[in-house]
Amino acid sequence: MKKRQLVLDIGGVLATDLDNFWFTLSEEAQLPLEIVRSVYKQEIRQNLWNGNITEPEFWDWLTNTFPNIKLDYLKESLTNSLYPLDGINYLKRWANHADIHILSNHRAEWIYPFLNPFKHFLSSIIISSEVGVAKPDKEIYEICMNQIGGNLPILFVDNKSENLIPASDFGWNTILADSSNQWINTVENEIVR
Questions:
Q1: Distance of alpha carbon 98 from alpha carbon 101, whole angstroms
Q2: In this structure, is the dihedral angle defined by the CA atoms of residues 161, 163, 166 and 171, taken in order, positive or negative?
Q3: Cys-Cys with 6: which of 11, 52, 77, 98 at CB 3.0–4.6 Å?
Q4: Checking phi first, is residue 74 left (phi over 0); if not, alpha (psi -120 to 50) or beta?
């Protein structure tokens, strides 16, 4: 019997988003969070997640854009902003019932240290900075399907509804990860039942 295919996002599903990092940057730059996020979004976000710039280029951009910051403190803040959420505790159990795949908009340099202790539960890892395209671009879902090898059905969990739409278009079953973790019960019912 073929195993189910479970595709999981990282931020907001298995680990925290980088919200604490952005709060720290806002404080360091002495600017409102909305302004910091807006400048980031307009100037560098897409290139960062798509891997079109290097991690050192991101840090250079930060120091040039926000000259008052303490770079070493921010690098430490970024590392400390990634901590596990409850979903990570289910990987071992779910791996007994499904092939687990990661599909995440992230930087490989930041996320692999977090994922390393769990790699043996994962069938594939697709990080946007490595493949050059980010969700919700349909191409990243095609890359994921090629990794999976066309085995359907696919169950996909993401914390952003706009990332679920292309997955649904490809025929994947989707679950929106909520902060109250009801999504975990849904995955349990779908995968373990």
A1: 9
A2: negative
A3: 98
A4: alpha
Label residues 8-40 b or e (16+ Cβ within 10 Å = b). Answer: bbbbbbbbbbbeebbebbbebbebeeeebeebb
| pLDDT per position as a tens digit, 109-125 | 999 999 999 999 999 99
Determine the Cα–Cα distance for residues 181 and 174; give it in Å rounded to an integer: 15
pTM of the model: 0.94
Handedness of CA 103, 83, 190, 2 (dihedral sign): positive
User: Is the four-CA dihedral 47, 140, 118, 164 of positive or negative sign?
Assistant: positive
- C-alpha–C-alpha distance, residues 147 and 141, integer Å: 10
CB atoms within 10 A of CB 101: 20
Band (128; pLDDT cuts 50, 70, 90): very high
Question: Domain residue spans in the chain?
Answer: 4-16+83-192, 19-81
Q: Are 146 and 124 in contact (CB under 8 A)?
A: no
Q: Do the strands 98-104 and 154-158 form a parallel or antiparallel pair, or are they unpaired?
A: unpaired
